[in-house]
Write a structure and sequence with these properties.
By secondary structure, this protein is of the alpha+beta class. It has helices spanning 2-27, 125-146, 149-181, 260-294, and strands spanning 39-49, 55-56, 65-70, 77-81, 92-93, 98-104, 112-114, 185-200, 206-217, 223-227, 243-249, 252-257.
């Protein structure tokens, strides 16, 4: 009885969070929100690119820059530096690059910069995560009550949906990069940093990886500083000052690769693995459904 109540509270709570997130982002008109709760999005410009650190953990901070934008509420023009992950991240920057910043109304100093080259949006992240937690809670309750077939069906369906979404996003990104790099120009870049991050395997063993930070000059004299993530990671630190060929899209130098063919291969492999995972999870879900219908 207690388990039923806890499961109901868990599922109802996370379902409410998911529904509220969808309503707030898609249904409720912005004018219906209190001014203090609105998120303001304004155009911004990179005014200065700071010197990136030569080594250390990247921790999502990206290339340090100073951005300029205007607070529409006061008309004040602000010049603010990004201060690590709390202000968002740019993986590529040059003076004059157009970006977007968002901040709570009346609090422009709490801004976050958005990278236009990623093509990603996080507006649905919270509702989707909440819905997954509600589904996982419901599945766990059904497993405890009625047996393991629900685990195959519930968790298999959840994993299949997440993997399929990841495969679609990865494929879309890979196709966009391939299209832009098809007319790539080549410049000689210089490695100015080798950032380190560490991931742990299933046994908890640490595996350090290093990401190259490179600077290069485009044909129209823009000096670009960029960090290559994540497929350019290596097990050894990069040699500072080393020269490397950089292939970049003329219309958007933030789209770059050291080897376009390897870049396409990496995205293709990622999409294939996620697709295979989605198919395997779908098979598990169908197996669970078959066991339930026969039982």
């Amino acid at each position: 009885m207690l388990l039923d109540v806890l499961a109901a509270m868990w599922c109802a709570g996370w379902t409410t969070v998911a529904a509220h997130g969808v309503w707030r982002r898609s249904v409720r008109p912005p004018s219906g929100r209190p001014a203090s709760s609105r998120t303001v999005r304004v155009a911004a410009r990179v005014e200065r690119v700071e010197t990136p650190r030569e080594s250390g953990t990247p921790d999502g901070s990206g290339i340090p820059v100073v951005v300029a934008f205007q607070d529409p509420a006061t008309g004040e023009r602000l010049l603010l530096p990004t201060a690590g992950a709390r202000n968002g991240r740019l993986d590529a920057a040059w003076v004059g690059r157009a970006v977007t910043v968002r901040f709570p109304a009346g609090r422009p100093y709490d801004f976050r910069v958005e990278d236009p080259s990623t093509g990603r949006t996080r507006r649905a992240t919270l509702p989707a995560a909440a819905a997954c937690l509600a589904w996982a809670g419901l599945t766990a309750w059904l497993v405890v009550r009625d047996g393991g077939a629900w685990a195959l069906l519930g968790f298999g369906a959840l994993l299949a949906a997440l993997a399929a979404r990841g495969a679609t996003a990865n494929s879309r990104t890979g196709r966009r990069r391939a299209r832009l790099l098809a007319t790539a120009q080549t410049a000689t870049g210089r490695i100015v940093g080798s950032w380190q991050f560490t991931f742990h395997d299933a046994d908890g063993n640490p595996h350090p990886r290093h990401l190259p930070v490179v600077t290069f000059t485009t044909a129209d004299a823009r000096t670009v500083t960029a960090v290559r993530r994540p497929y350019a990671a290596t097990t050894h630190p990069h040699t500072l000052g080393a020269e490397v060929p950089v292939h970049y899209a003329p219309t958007d130098p933030a789209i770059l690769a050291f080897d376009p063919r390897a870049d396409r291969h990496a995205y293709g492999c990622g999409t294939a693995l996620l697709t295979a995972l989605s198919l395997a999870a779908t098979a598990a879900a169908l197996t669970g459904l078959t066991l339930l219908t026969r039982g």
